[in-house]
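Reopening closed ticket. The problem is back. First fold of the pair:
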Amino acid sequence: MAKKFNIDPDITKASTLPSSFYKDPDIFEAIKQKIFYRSWQWIGDSHKVGSKGTAYPFVLLRDFLEEPMLLTKDKGGEIHCLSNVCTHRGNLVISETGSYKKLICGYHGRRFSLNGNFEHMPEFKETKNFPGPCDNLHDFPIRQWGPLLFAGLSPEFDFQTVIEKMDQRVGFMSFNKLVHDPRRDKDYVINAHWALYCDNYLEGFHIPFVHDDLNAVLDYGDYETICFDHCNVQIGYAEGSEDVFDLPEGHIDHGKNIAAYYFWVFPNMMFNFYPWGLSVNLVQPLELHKTKVSFVTYVINPEKLDKGAGTGLDKVEMEDEAVVEGVHKGIRSHYYKAGRFSPTREQGVHHFHSLLATFMNRESF
């Protein structure tokens, strides 16, 4: 029987997930089906298929889910997220980004339109009850927020509800001016369980103890966490009035000195908004003891770069990695079973653990 997890909804009574969640190989495998197949992932931006007729193949969470997928923009300008697996014999349909009038499998010539619909197959005239819906390329749910794209394999919630919560705080920013700065992108490989990295991100409790530079520009006393259904936001207030957002009148936080909005989206995505732009952090499980974290940078106001809470991100990351790897080693102790939550500082971690328990307790596909 699959292990059941219980997180008390009352944070003042609740304990964390048991250490077995982070140590058991069977639980790690179950996470694929029960959590990642049922949620959403950031898959890049719309510039990957900038012109009509473009197709962009990629693998969703390489070395973990290994799902071959395909972004296309059809002649009407609509973006689709499709399976990149031919419905005949399972060959990859295309292998390179390019301009395509049709998607044609190089194995036996099966042809699809750019929206994934089956069109033609040689030597199949005598096949009965053909074609059927199963002969189309699978069309995955996709959502777009500004240039950012999100897809789900079999998501159990509508990502639009997440977009609405983020939009409430940062929708005033000029998303159409977001410019990807690949020079600032970086991948980190961490010797720890992926969820421990999320645990650390989801609380500002450790900032005074771990991040001296960040603590110098944030007002720890006013640090705030607000939880929604499948996402939450940590609001970092500045010590002074410099290097903060210029919030418009009518904004929910108008008049406050806010240095950063740290959005986390279940299960593994972070969207960190600063006055200069956006840092996307994607936490990608690789193995039980190994995680890849990708930082992707989008700039709106380059003159505000390297100032305030959004500066020194590499140093902050190194400090976080040291703590997360230390926890990963520590929870392997025979004497550590679970911990308790700080009701004032760990609402985000409690929210995360509650969602993990809910999804893990559901039946598998």
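Second fold of the pair, where the issue appears:
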Amino acid sequence: MIELPDLVDHHCHGVLRGDLGFGTFETYLTESDAPAAPGTTFFDTQAGFAVRRWCPPLLGLEPHASPARYLARRRELGAYEAGRLLLRATGIGVYLVDTGLPGDLTPPGELAAAGAAQAREIVRLEQLAEQVADTSGTVDAFVANIAESVHTAASLGSAVGFKSVAAYRHGLALAPDPPAPGDVRRAAGDWLAARRPGGRLTDPVLLRHLLWTAVATGLPLQLHTGFGDPDLRLDHADPALLTDFVRATAGLGTDLVLLHGYPYHRQAAYLAHVFPHVYADVGLALSHVGARAPDVLAEFLELAPFGKLLFSTDAYALPELYVVGVEAFRDALRRLLGGWVTSGAWSLPDAERVGALIAAGNARRVYGLS
């Protein structure tokens, strides 16, 4: 068996604290915001079957226990104890937590304590800008406070990277160059004048300004690409649309990490192949494709250099999604690398070295983790 080190989950979110009923729990097994097909539940998905395969034994049940039985056992233990058992079984040593999602989610420190691990923060740029807008009375104050907030997050060491969800807010077909200061001021004035409290940032000029402000810090910049919830136009999230931005940021010292990618993961692998500062992430997709995870991971490994792939779960709300993300990744990687060793294509030491890079080593290098 291919041995892997403790994992670095370089892109994840907090979990919910309270007990969950069936109807609430199942909504986190899908990216859809609509009900399941009549007569079914979202347990009838690859993600749902993966939860039933991997999670019941960690709570004292047999694999593939029914959803009702599993959730009854979860309530019997209580949300905190169930979460602790699930998280500590994953072998994740470091969580890099995107704190930009709403809801009563555990912050990085609380997640780390539950999982007996370490945690650092990834700052979501669009949420940061929206928070600044809520407290800035003028265009000048908004522009200055954006710069100060990004710089502070980078310089105080509270964050090890930034993330953008421009794919959701506009799409990735953004002009590649930094916007001129006058354009930023005009766009900010228009947005602030039209914005209601809590309004989301969708202006393409301001989205570009955020990206370039983050690039100037030198910290890694995560970019959502591919698969996501219905707020997304999938064809606008193809990572190939970032090619000009990737070219424009080459040589500046900031690494770009293309998250998820699916079903455009081969495009992400290509960009990682040809641009030294681009990395690709295998998260989210593996959890949702379940038993097909080895096939999807194999497609990443066709072209992406092995020092350019990073592991994540993109787990959100349910500790079960950490388990599923880890087990899908471990099982897929071991099957692939083990098969290549058995066939004679690879040696066992090389397989274990590459496995360690993808599981943790690449993330430790990119994010400067000790």
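Update: turned out to be a display glitch only; the data is intact. Strands lie at 7-12, 92-98, 118-124, 159-164, 221-225, 256-260, 278-281, 309-310. Residues 26 and 40 are 11 Å apart (CA to CA). Please close again.
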